[in-house]
Amino acid sequence: MSDFRLKVFQSVAKNLSFTKASQELFVSQPAITKHIQELEAYYQTRLFDRQGSKISLTKSGQLLLKHSEKILDDYKQLEYEMHLLHNEYIGELKLGASTTIAQYVLPPLLAEFIAKFPQVNLSLINGNSRGVEAALQEHRIDLGLVEGIFRLPNLKYTPFLQDELVAVVHTHSKLAVSDEITPEDLPNIPLVLRERGSGTLDVFERSLLHHNLKLSSLNVLMYLGSTESIKLFLEHADCMGIVSIRSVYKELVAGNFRVVEIKGMPMQREFNFVQLQGQEGGLSQVFMRFAGHHRKNL
């Protein structure tokens, strides 16, 4: 029921690209241009400044974006509540999840959710925790799942699942490191870690501070953008990685990796749902309740 032109405008405004909006909405680029021209004609104002191949929002465009986000959110909530009157769960739910959660926690949960609610149009994007929070603030997703630390006051964080970070080395590594070390040993051990902005690195860095250690004092060979990249790196380099225990369960069972305990330095963390303050409810709440009922299987 919602005005598709507003969806087109929002996509162009978020991506600052007609081409990316076309790809995102599966609509031809001429059709995207036509919808924007219709909006500009209706409001009798330019919505975008065009400088060569680049575009930017005008003041009018910024105002329309502000209101279109509210309008489209209201349409989504209206659709959900109208169908709920008939005990039907219908609508669109856009999820965003940090890399570890997206790869190692969500897939079985998503499969079960789709089986139970086949009329919900479910989608997932993934990135690091800060990227997920940014997507939520930009209204590109409805509900996020992030790792570790509460960051932003305008977001509501709800604990979902416990997790633990562990230090691991490949069993064929030539790195001379025992099964138990102290935090003071860390500066002498080559490491591969997740990138800045990841929940994994945030938790590790916070644990270091409890022992008066800084990330800058460590011998970090590489910062990589995913846990899978770290695991592959460990297969070919004599170093140690810090990852979620969930991500290496199969490798530990198969004997390919071993855990190195860092004595006196627990690295516990929570996976959290994250929502915009004041926008709790709808299909996001349905998914959160569903996930809560199934957390024992994860």
Radius of gyration of CA atoms, rounded to a whole number: 23 Å
Quick one: biggest sheet?
10 strands, mixed
CATH topology of the largest domain: D-Maltodextrin-Binding Protein, domain 2
**Structural class determined from secondary elements:** alpha/beta
The level of helicity is 40-55%
Helix/strand order: HHHEEHEHHEHEEEEHEHEHEEH
**% residues in beta strands:** 25-35%
Within CATH, the superfamily of the largest domain carries the name Periplasmic binding protein-like II
Arithmetic mean pLDDT: 90
Q: Any idea what the shape is?
A: elongated
SS element count, helices: 11
What labels would you give this structure?
298 residues; 3 domains; 43% helix; Arc Repressor Mutant, subunit A; D-Maltodextrin-Binding Protein, domain 2; 10-stranded mixed beta sheet; 26% strand; 11 helices
